[in-house]
Amino acid sequence: MQKYGVVAVTAVLVFLACSMPAYAADGYGWGFKKSDDHNIPDVGKYQQMLDDYGAYYADHSGEKTVYLTFDNGYEEGYTDDILDVLGKHQVPAAFFVTGHYVQDKPELVKRMADEGHIIGNHSYHHPDFTVVSKENMQKELADLEEEVADITDQKSITYMRPPRGMFNEETLGWAQELGYTQIFWSLAFVDWKTDKQKGWKHAYDNIMEQIHPGAIILLHTVSSDNAKALDKTITELKEQGYQFKSLDQLVIKDHLPEPIYGY
């Protein structure tokens, strides 16, 4: 099972190696040119697709907000440390978990929920949703949600991240119909290769070079670099005036009615 987890997690960000969005026979692989000017990356035609189906990859309000998200396909022993740092700084995060992770590390999933973090749906078996039926996609999401509800007080899941970063208009529509908000990302780097970690400064520098107002940051908890860099990263971003918020705050704010001025 661990070998499967390594392959699955590796596949999630393979498209980020390309500077432009990647195309597959039945879908798109989430990707974009990395931001190097502290602005939200341009994702081209993807933007309209996400808008049409209520999906997110960044907060476009212009506010200096940051949203930390982690993908959890398997465990390398760093998630406790990451949760300790988040607790120290009172920073919320979202953890997108798979069925393997929930079965293998239920105590960590429970700790995430108990400490006020969001548990997101990364599917049960990590399939490419663009090559399965709507019924199969629904089962993948429902089975994961049931596993999480069995061990935590979070009885429903609102947010999902498509396995392998694969999507198309059909899967975006299916997710919306099933009551999920899809969460992509605007800041990421190759952090999942556990045998090629480069030290905490590599992770820190990657985040600082790409950071921008409204960033949804994707990190993997299998990275020792991330675990070691997180404390300094949060401290520095706060000093720069960034606020760390939860996905709930992003989505609720986005759906508030426009203020009415005058009488």
TrEMBL record:
Signal peptide (from-to): 1-24
Annotated InterPro entries: Glyco_hydro/deAcase_b/a-brl (IPR011330), NODB_dom (IPR002509), Polysacc_deacetylase_ArnD (IPR050248), Spore_PdaA (IPR014235)
Gene3D superfamilies named in the record: Glycoside hydrolase/deacetylase
Pfam families referenced in this protein's UniProt entry, alphabetically: Polysacc_deac_1
Keywords: Signal
Domain NodB homology: 64-245
Source organism, top-level taxon: Bacteria
UniProt-listed NCBIfam families: spore_pdaA
Name the UniProt record assigns to this protein: Delta-lactam-biosynthetic de-N-acetylase
